[in-house]
TrEMBL record:
Source taxon at top rank: Bacteria
Region (Disordered): 43-77, 493-522, 731-804
Chain intervals with Acidic residues compositional bias: 737-749
Species this protein is from: Streptomyces griseoincarnatus
Lineage, top ranks: Bacteria, Bacillati, Actinomycetota, Actinomycetes, Kitasatosporales
Protein name per UniProt: DUF6049 family protein
Keyword Transmembrane assigned: yes
Record field: transmembrane: 700-720
Regions of compositional bias (Low complexity) in chain numbering: 43-67
Length: 804
């Protein structure tokens, strides 16, 4: 950036202050002449110092300026400076005195930088001390002990003349036993902006207020209907809790005229915490635990909604992708720019749905505003036409004695919005110490006023601070913005208005070459392997989603996780970034493997045709469809699948179920054949791992058929023989029963006749059997001889031969 001129225009300050300062100089001229005419003193007199002198460059006493109010005083104000003095030496300091000194006018921005660099140098010019009544005395400063001081001086007593920035220093003078004379033992230089009257052409200042965090959400979600999100840590809860970094950013920013620059991922993550979320492995059993900060998340989002109401909101692409890393390492990987486009498209919807405001998505913000032609190309590829760059990395105009206005047309309809480097970086560093914070505020005001006094042209100045300010840095920024908004030389402006302001034709518009990109930033970029892993994971996601009945349950969380995998917040944390990306890919592999083929053992076929079942298992909570199962014979000469080398059948399986798919096979010869089962998506891409198993074919020959037929015939004959035997036995038993019945009838008839003819009855003794029934009765010639011997109806004994 071109430096400001070394001279200022006529000051609008009242003439009486100029006359008073001029009169003081003229009054001191005769006294100075008298001193010059004095004779030289003796050596002893020369050894006694007539004025304080420095003890060392660093000073043996540390002086801090912890507070300076008001930061930019006006006429009638009282300037109050407070802080501490600490004896760092080994000797006690006696007759110590803390006073204020107003130094020279710092009329260039570089002179302010030099003064800030040497703010503790006791050898730096400190100017004349203000009236002795505005000092604080210490009789003794013990080594290692700090003492507070407070000095209040009316602004009129500071004898400030021309408008601008003055070197204001707090000095401590005193004596030690080793050096028993008055000397400057410690100093702290700071800045005092002096512009009591309103400038005619105020600077339009835009301050970007970033709400950006690191990555907290994983790609994993619960299997419940609500898809409970999983966070890899609970640090976001600490940031949004009262007193946390993001809580302070919102509380401080709501009362400031700033442009809110928000990463939609932060809003989405906090919104996910408002219901139920899990953190893996946080307890002793290494089980997921439920986060308990729902009310904190709801309160923070409510506060953000109130803070951004009626304010300009700029939405960064989702996840705040690292544009420089993408430009330098990702564009050569297919599909990388696709993620940037998706992140930009989802940004506006996310912010609007949560904050109920319509954000601008026209801006790209590379890390630290450093650009080269490839970064500009990538930044605008997703639709942004304005790139926020920083002045120290962007070429300025030639021979400019002032800081030009922010917008610069760089061709192709793209505008580079150049943020002022000095104003943007002044809040870097540790701001937890009050002295550092106060110095940053005064330096910010000093640079802003010096910039305003460079020219009478109205200009737009943009301040783009660090992406993730700490709570202390945010507090310092708020103090500086508050003081600037109350100043007489600046007025707030939103980012869109700044970008649309009329460019300065003398300002440089050349984009720095790739060789000019800072090496320190290039070392922190994401490597090519990161984008290759993201592309590989995306390819797996594309293959997985086509089989799902509800793709949104997987596409949305994984798509956002891939955006987070290329976030700018991973800079300086390569190990954590690699772990996160690997976790996303591994979890996707785990989900994909829940749809698989069940392993099969060897199958035996005893015939020319048979059916082989193959089981598909779905352990997902949702159903899968659009899958094809292909069964392939590696030896179709021996074994065919449905008359061919392979057969395909569509597959659809409900969540948590399995399905068996049956294939008809035909065997042409005996032996072993290898069969491969593989799932495919409908576009012909393999899905999952194949299952390979053997099928053993045993062909049935004619001899075997004859043997089997003979055996069947013997079984039939044996059954028929048993049937006839049982039939004949039943017939004999029926015949014997008929003979017994006939004999009984004959005996009855004989008895009847004997009763009628006693002579006949007397010839038969009582109890005697009827003729032909007694065993000892002689056989009568007329009795028929039996043609068969009596036969038992019981089963034959073993080996017994039965004639039929």
């Amino acid at each position: 950036m071109a430096e400001a001129a070394d001279f200022q225009g006529t000051s609008p300050s009242p003439a009486r202050r100029w006359l008073r300062r001029t009169g003081a100089v003229l009054a001191g001229t005769p006294l100075l002449a008298g001193f010059l005419q004095l004779p030289a003193g003796s050596p002893a007199e020369a050894a006694t110092p007539a004025a304080p002198r420095a003890a060392s460059d660093d000073g043996s006493v540390a002086v801090s300026v912890d507070s300076l109010t008001p930061g930019a005083p006006s006429e009638g104000d009282t300037v109050t400076v407070s802080g501490t003095v600490t004896n760092k030496g080994k000797k006690a300091v006696t007759d110590a005195s803390v006073g204020l000194r107003v130094g020279s006018l710092l009329d260039t921005r570089s002179s302010i930088d030099t003064a800030a660099k040497n703010s503790g140098d006791v050898d730096s010019p400190a100017g004349a001390e203000i009236d002795d009544k505005y000092t604080e005395k210490f009789s003794k400063l013990t080594p290692g002990v700090s003492q507070p001081y407070t000095i209040s001086v009316p602004a009129d007593e500071l004898d400030l003349g021309q408008d601008g920035v003055y070197d204001l220093s707090v000095t401590l003078t005193g004596e030690t036993s080793d050096q028993p004379w008055e000397q400057t033992l410690g100093v702290r230089h700071t800045f005092l902006p002096w512009q009591p009257d309103e400038l005619d052409a105020k600077t339009n200042t835009t301050f970007m207020w970033p709400l950006v965090s690191t990555v907290h959400m994983t790609a994993e979600t619960g299997s419940d209907e609500e898809q409970t999100p999983v966070f890899h840590d609970d640090e976001l809860a600490a940031e949004i809790s009262p007193g946390g970094r993001l809580d302070r950013m919102v509380a401080l920013g709501k009362d400031l005229d700033v442009t809110w620059v928000i990463d939609p991922d932060l809003l989405a993550s906090v919104e996910a915490m408002t219901t139920r979320y899990e953190i893996p492995g946080e307890n002793t059993d290494d089980q997921d635990v439920v986060g308990g900060h729902q009310e904190v998340a709801k309160r923070w989002l409510t506060e953000v909604q109130k803070a951004v109401a009626d304010k300009e909101v700029v939405a960064l692409p989702f996840g705040d992708p690292d544009l420089a890393s993408l430009a330098h390492h990702g564009t050569s990987v297919t599909g990388s720019l696709r993620h940037l486009k998706e992140a930009t498209d989802v940004a506006a919807r996310t912010v609007e749905s949560i904050l109920h405001v319509v954000p601008s998505t026209d801006y790209a913000w590379p890390v630290e505003g450093a650009v080269d032609p490839s970064i500009i190309k990538v930044a605008t590829s997703a639709g942004a036409d304005k790139v926020i760059v920083r002045g120290d990395t962007f070429e300025g105009g030639r021979d400019l004695t002032y800081t030009p206005t922010a917008p610069r047309p760089i061709g192709g309809g793209t505008t580079a919005v150049v943020a002022d480097a000095r104003l943007s970086t002044v809040f870097d560093g540790d701001m937890t110490r009050a002295s550092a914070s106060t110095q940053a505020v005064q330096r910010f005001l000093a640079q802003s006023l010096t910039l305003a006094l460079q020219t009478d042209r109205p200009r737009s100045v943009v301040v783009a601070p660090q992406r993730t300010p700490s709570a202390a840095q945010a507090q310092t920024m708020a103090e500086a913005i508050g003081a600037l908004q109350d100043s007489t030389w600046s007025q707030p402006q939103d980012l869109t208005a700044a970008a649309k302001s009329k460019p300065d034709p003398a300002a440089g518009t050349d984009v720095p070459p790739a060789s000019a990109y800072p090496k320190s930033l290039r070392k922190q970029e994401l490597p090519r392997s990161a984008f290759e892993q993201i592309a590989r994971t995306q390819d797996k996601l594309d293959r997985f989603k086509v089989i799902l009945s509800d793709q949104s349950r997987v596409v949305t969380p994984f798509g956002r996780a891939l955006n987070r995998g290329m976030a700018a917040s991973w800079r300086g944390r390569p190990a954590e970034a690699a772990i996160y990306r690997s976790g996303v890919e591994t979890y996707l592999d785990t989900l994909s493997s829940q749809v698989r083929l069940i392993e099969k053992s060897e199958t035996k076929l005893s015939g020319r045709s048979a059916t082989i079942p193959v089981t598909v298992q779905n352990n997902l909570v949702q159903g899968v469809e659009h899958l094809v199962l292909r069964l392939t014979s590696t030896n179709p000469t021996r074994l065919q699948i449905d008359g061919d080398a392979y057969e395909e059948q569509p597959v659809a399986v409900s969540g948590g179920h399995s399905q068996s798919v049956k294939f008809t096979t035909n065997a042409n010869a005996n032996g072993r054949a290898t069969v491969v089962a593989q799932l495919y998506t409908q576009d012909g891409r393999p899905y999952g791992q194949p299952v390979t198993f053997d099928v053993k074919v045993t062909e049935i020959t004619a001899t075997v058929m004859l043997v089997i037929g003979g055996g069947v015939l013997l079984l039939v004959l044996a059954g028929f023989r048993m049937y006839t035997q049982r039939k004949r036995a039943a017939a004999r038993q029926a015949e014997e029963r008929e003979q017994d019945d006939a004999a009984d009838e004959a005996d009855a008839d004989a008895a009847d006749k004997g009763a009628k003819n006693p002579a006949v009855s007397e010839t038969r003794p009582t109890g005697e059997s009827a003729p032909g029934t007694r065993e000892d009765a002689p056989e009568q010639p007329s009795d028929p001889a039996p043609d068969t011997a009596p036969e038992s109806a019981d089963p034959s004994g073993t080996g017994e031969r039965v004639d039929r």
